[in-house]
Amino acid sequence: MIAVNRGPRARVNATGWLCVGPQGKAVRLVFSTSRTGFTHYDFPELIDRVHQRLGGGPVVLVWDNHASHKTRWLRGRLGAREWLTVVLLPRYAPELNPVEALWSQLKRRIANRAYRSLDELENAMRSYLLSAQKRRDVLAGFVRSAHLTPDPIPSTT
Question: What CATH code is carried by the domain that includes residue 60?
Fold first, then answer.
């Protein structure tokens, strides 16, 4: 997740998933932005949207160890989804999370500019993320940056 502040309460937040599909499928980026932020109460709906965008098959969600990802309420909600398996990364290991490379690139792209409004800032963020969605090679590079392969192991069945 990324949060960009402008003023004491004004901010634009983004959450995103780099999705590696079955063999032959390219890496995909699914993201959402918000002015009010994301809490653990938002994640079930966001994950359901990702699931739908990916065609409704089984999903293995590899998540960082953020406290909001481990609440009892959220574990209960996600546990009810038979199609979902959640794997938590070790604490303090951003180098293992490919989305962190995406956020790093986004921050470099939007940094050191004077935005006249939150709309302008949000548009710059969304423009970069929409552009990144089309660059499958760049998305695969983010996955490789975490020492993972963007090419899933072929099924033996």
Answer: 3.30.420.10
Q: What is the pTM of this model?
A: 0.81
Q: How many domains does the chain have?
A: 1
Q: How many CB atoms lie within 10 A of CB 130?
A: 11
Residue entry with tokens 């962190």: 100
In a domain, 134, yes or no: yes
> How many angstroms separate the CA atoms of 61 and 71, rounded?
16
Cα angle 87, 90, 95 (rounded to 5 degrees) comes to 105
CA 95 to chain CA centroid, Å, is 14
Please name the helix (run of DSSP H) or strand (run of DSSP E) that holds residue 29, with its range, or none: strand 28-34
Pair of tokens at residue 89: 């990364």
pLDDT digits (tens, 9 = 90+) for 124-142: 999 999 999 999 999 999 9
